[in-house]
Design brief:
Elements lengths: L20 H23 L9 H6 L6 H22 L11 H11 L2 H14 L4 E7 L4 E7 L10 E7 L6 H4 L3 H8 L5 H9 L2
Antiparallel strand pairs: 1-2, 1-3
Helix pairs in contact: 1-3, 4-8
The chain binds manganese (II) ion.
Amino acid sequence: MAYKVPDLPYAYDALEPHIDEATMRAHHDKHHQAYVDKANAALADTEWEDVRPREILTRLDELPDDLRDTVRNNAGGQYNHCMFWRSMSPDGGGEPDGALGEAITTAFGSADELKSLLKTAGVNRFGSGWAWLVHDGSGLAVVSTPNQDNPVTGGQTPLLGLDVWEHAYYLVYQSRRPDYIDAWFSVVNWQTVAERFADV
Ligand code: MN
């Protein structure tokens, strides 16, 4: 079954002023759609076309050489962006609580320290990529990946991904990636992150 871009779970302008409507329209309707179109074109009529993106990303080494990079980038783009839209909410921001909040305190000392680590990972990602909160099998960790790579390929479970591609922020923040990251924390949907954590 071909991949699709899911509708946003809120209006395009719902994350303003932190993330603007024009950025959301371009990011969701153009950039995410392009990953989906390229993934579908690559996977059509292969034995992989019904395999879900997350599973494909854990089995990249099994793909034919002529498909691997295209699928890595574009199935990655699909999986990462599906996660990303659900990781934000107009009711987001604040602090994680419950079991996730306790695990964050154990791993990092505080939610503020986690945010600081994510920001550093995002700012220091050279070029395009992502910063992630993951569960690495033993506990929580912050990592970053280039391009559309996802930590699941390395055996980690992604809980929260921060898109630091310029297309995620450039219309408003231009080169001020740190300011975008600060604003993004105001829309993080910690409830969704907590649900992913509960499934680890
Ligand atoms: Mn993106």
